[in-house]
Amino acid sequence: MDFSKRPDFSHLIIALESAVLLAFLVLLTPWGSRMTVGRDTAGVEENAAGSEGDTAGVEGNAAGPEGDAAGVEENAAGPEEETRAGGADSDADRGRNRETDKKDYIHWVDFQVTSEALNRAFRYDVSTCQSEIHLNWIELLAYLGARYGGDFSRYSERDMDEIAVCLRNGEKLEEITAGMKYYPYYLEAYTAVLGGMVGEYQIEIPGGQAPDFALPKDSSGNPIRTEDNVWVTKYGLKAFSPIAKNYPYTDFDDFGASRSYGFKRRHLGHDMMGQVGTPVIAVESGYVEAMGWNRYGGWRLGIRSFDGRRYYYYAHLRKNYPYHKSLQVGSVVQAGDVIGYLGRTGYSQTENTNNIDEAHLHFGLQLIFDESQKEGDNEIWIDCYQLVKFLYNNRSETVRDAATKEHYRAYQMQDPDIPGGAREQKLPAETGGMREQKLSVETGEYGNRSFG
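^ thats the sequence. predicted structure below, dont judge the formating
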């Protein structure tokens, strides 16, 4: 073989170039374009099919964090302020979500203040009402709320006493709370719950229990002892327990318990078990906003506070005679008035039906920061158990008209916050004032000790 000659590849190169050119020309034709698009589409579909697995994986992860979400809720109920009040889903953050219409109002309140904290803050308020530095009980509670992140399982009297001493020594609350981001939230939220419950008012008390300055005087200015009722001006608790004095009841913290009639739901009130016919009392002064039949609550009554922030709900009232006969929608009621009678109506579409197994009062308290919250998915109902324990300090005594069997308050009151003045709820004059109960008032029953 002659290795001095090289092979001639020119024909092969020309053939390859021709094939490449032909392929390029084919791709420029419509048929070639369809081939390319089809291939790309097939690739996208393949990727999309692959992403279904990714999507399924995401759904699996989305389902997985439900346990994490439950853990977040549990942590949100923890004691630290930064955990509860500083996190994205804290009460304060949820409470201050801004609506698209630019309205800014509280959307959620978790009221956990204990009766012990309520009592101590209240006593500080009353004992300093005539002092140069008057301690406001709601401000004390709001300070502790911000300090505890709303979790009053951490409450101690020492914490309350420390802030009270600081304030009485002249320190300013604005300066003390300057670094507490959520103090304004707790102040507004707790004011919404407690705002109408403490203040100045006038009330009747038996002459035998009246201080000397409240008694009539003789010509020498000496007090005249009398068995008649006398009026005194007081500063203190002017809200009342929902159940009249001298009537027993039992209760426990049942807020959030499951209910199944109609549909599965949470119990958004506080049940107070007692005897049918027990007088039900207006907790706070206000006006009757709703009354009549509700298939869940039976005969029920709704009273709105004058500032519009609180809606008191009294349900399962007595069959045949649920309400005090003086009431109608729009009526003004005064704290301590008899408004109705405990029963067991409800759980029926048919009016005046007793379908509740155990006679009780369903007492509910709804907070309203904007009228859009009054009805629907945005309602705010709070746990009233601790509040009811606190209100036990002030129970309204009643008398029963022997002729009509209607109950009335035993001691009249004048709440200055009632627009146009208060009306009295007295035994009708035509009955001759015949009472079936002897009146008595225990020392301290009205929840305050200062007269002025």
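Residues 115-195 form one domain.
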